[in-house]
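Journal club side-thread
Mid-discussion, someone asked how the predicted structure for our own chain would compare to the paper's figures. Pasting it here so we can look after the session.
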Amino acid sequence: MSEFWLISAPGDQENLQALERMNTVTAKSNLSYNTKFSIPDFKVGTLDSLVGLSDELGKLDTFAESLIKKMAQSVVEVMEDAKGKVPENLLANGGLKEKMKYLKIDLTSFVTHFEWDMAKYPAKQPLVSVVDTLAKQLAQIETDLKSRTAAYNTLKTNLENLEKKSMGNLFTRTLSDIVSKEDFVLGSEYLVTLLVIVPKPSYAQWQKTYESLSDMVVPRSTKLIAEDNEGGLFTVTLFRKVIEDFKTKAKENKFTVREFYYDEKEIKREREEMSRLLSDKKQQYGPLLRWLKVNFSEAFIAWIHIKALRVFVESVLRYGLPVNFQAVLLQPHKKSSTKRLREVLNSVFRHLDQVAAASILDASVEIPGLQLSTQDYFPYVYFHIDLSLLD
């Protein structure tokens, strides 16, 4: 599963034994894979400041998760023709171990081997400064994401609109890519070439009757220049002054005159526009994908650091000073085992908060001073990490 539970309990002997019991039961029942989650000692400051930080970190957590989901979706949209390769482009830097520093590893491995990045987010700084660094980093990534994807999406939309013109049937599609100069009488004061759509079953009727649909039709001037499933596109040359009469007679015979006048400059401009957009899209594709890969990694790493900070702040608020708690990362083995896993945790840590433990079974019990709903509150500190970023 791509789901993790990040929990903490006090670091005294009684609770370390409780953690051992949890590890034993979850391993024996094959409920989850558990690992210690290392969080450095931060400068705590006042409890008032921690309460404010708790609220700010909650909002930042939501923002970070939303941002990396947007970035993952952007990778899907950019890699439109190679969606099977998306997961290999959603990776994180390998962490702080020197030999792994420049490796890209999958997200699950990054979370299970998490180490705090002291160089980027110094633990000696006040907590508020660390949170501010993370918030500014993510805000900048979001700003850049918006501008880069907006430019690419505008280009993509313009290209799709042009491509749509060359799709569809002969009644609606552009004709500039299927007609040529040789198909038309051009520059004549008296003559004009029209394009007529003829249903396939009526080809023979067209050949027999087109010259007599009106006066002044040039004999043997028709030629089939394109076909689709329903019909064909024929040329016919006639005198300009009988255009309206010819159109009326053609319509009576279920032949449709397509409004089109050959303009070499316009056709050239349309073809050049298509070539330019294709070229621009190709040029932007590589740099945009590289930017997304690098900054997805940065945003994801920041998000997991935010989770670590939330555990630290909530543990100090819950368990008090001096700072002494143990954080553990649980990876449930399967969805069907999560209910049983929750029961094990509530049983093992029931002693931490008898009211909360009871209220989990009785949702009507309110916990004084706690603003979370009882469904979100457990006797131990708990945060959820879901790596299903494309669901």
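Post-session note: Confidence is low (pLDDT under 50) at residues 363-374.
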